[in-house]
C-alpha cells in the first residue's frame, strides 16, 4: 500500500469517528439532512465562533474575504457584509463558479438573504478567473468550514477536495499567495489530537475557531503546486467551470 493510500484511509477513518460525535451538535441541512459526506454542517455555538473571529486582527484588517459556502459560515458572511467587507464565494460544489458579494451594491435589508446559498446568486456578481486577474483581486483571508481538523491545522473535509482546488486556482492567478492566512470554523468535537501528514495539495489552516475557543497553530507550508492535473478527479474537471477556464488559461504556477 502506498503512503498516499495510507493517508487517505487514515483520513476516512478519522472522518467517520468525528461524524459520530458531530451528529450530537450538528444542525441538519435542508437538502442533505445529516449526510456529512455531502455538506459541512452548522453546529451549536457557531455564533460564538463568529463573534470570536470578528475580534481577530485578520478579520478587522481585511477588505476582501474568501468564505466557503458552508452552513457554519452563514452568520459570518452576514456579519462581514454588515461590516462592509467584500466576500468572494463559490456555489455549492463550485458548479457555477465564483461570485462576488459587494456590500455597496446590495441593499442592506438583503444582506442576510445574500449570505445564504439560496440568495447569493440573486444579488452577487458572477466573476471568472480572468475577471479576477483583470481586476487584480487580492484576497486577504481564506475561511472554510471542514469535517475535522487536527492541532497541526490539517483539515479533513468531505473528501472531495473543493477547498484545496479553490486555493490552487486562486494561488495560480495570484489572487492569494503562500502567506495568505487560512481559517477553519469547527465545533470542539471536530478538533483531533492525532498527527497526520499532509499531502502536497492539502491546504492547511493557520487559525482554528471553535464554539469555545480560537487558536493559531504552528505554520505548515501552504501548497504551491497549483492544480495537479494528472491526479485531478475527472468528474471535478467536467463539472467545475473555473477548472476548465484555468486549464485553458495555461498559466505558470507562481513560485
Automatic annotation (TrEMBL):
Q: Which GO terms describe its cellular component?
A: cytoplasm
Record-linked InterPro entries: FTHF_cligase (IPR002698), FTHF_cligase-like_sf (IPR024185), NagB/RpiA_transferase-like (IPR037171)
Q: Which domain of life is it from?
A: Eukaryota
Report the coiled-coil segments.
none
The name on file for this protein is: 5-formyltetrahydrofolate cyclo-ligase
Q: Which organism is it from?
A: [Candida] arabinofermentans NRRL YB-2248
Amino acid at each position: 500500500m502506498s503512503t498516499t493510500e495510507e493517508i487517505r484511509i487514515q483520513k476516512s477513518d478519522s472522518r467517520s469517528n468525528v461524524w459520530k460525535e458531530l451528529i450530537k451538535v450538528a444542525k441538519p441541512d435542508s437538502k442533505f439532512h445529516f449526510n456529512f459526506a455531502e455538506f459541512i454542517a452548522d453546529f451549536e455555538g457557531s455564533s460564538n465562533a463568529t463573534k470570536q473571529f470578528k475580534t481577530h486582527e485578520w478579520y478587522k484588517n481585511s477588505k476582501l474575504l474568501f468564505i466557503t459556502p458552508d452552513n457554519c459560515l452563514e452568520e459570518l458572511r452576514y456579519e462581514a457584509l454588515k461590516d462592509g467587507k467584500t466576500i468572494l464565494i463559490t456555489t455549492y460544489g463550485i458548479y457555477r463558479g465564483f461570485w462576488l458579494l459587494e456590500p455597496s451594491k446590495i441593499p442592506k435589508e438583503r444582506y442576510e438573504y445574500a449570505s445564504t446559498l439560496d440568495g447569493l446568486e440573486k444579488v452577487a456578481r458572477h466573476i471568472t478567473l480572468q475577471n479576477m486577474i483583470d481586476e487584480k483581486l487580492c484576497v486577504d483571508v481564506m475561511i472554510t468550514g471542514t469535517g475535522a481538523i487536527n492541532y497541526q491545522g490539517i483539515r479533513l473535509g468531505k473528501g472531495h477536495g473543493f477547498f484545496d482546488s479553490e486555493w490552487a486556482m486562486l494561488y495560480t492567478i495570484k489572487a492569494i499567495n503562500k502567506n495568505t492566512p487560512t481559517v477553519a470554523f469547527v465545533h470542539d468535537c471536530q478538533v483531533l489530537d492525532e498527527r497526520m501528514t499532509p499531502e502536497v495539495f492539502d491546504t492547511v489552516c493557520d487559525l482554528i475557531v471553535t464554539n469555545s475557543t480560537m487558536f493559531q497553530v504552528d505554520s505548515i507550508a501552504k501548497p504551491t503546486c497549483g492544480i495537479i492535473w494528472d491526479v485531478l478527479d475527472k468528474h471535478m474537471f467536467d463539472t467545475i467551470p473555473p477548472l476548465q477556464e484555468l486549464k485553458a488559461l495555461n498559466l505558470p504556477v507562481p513560485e
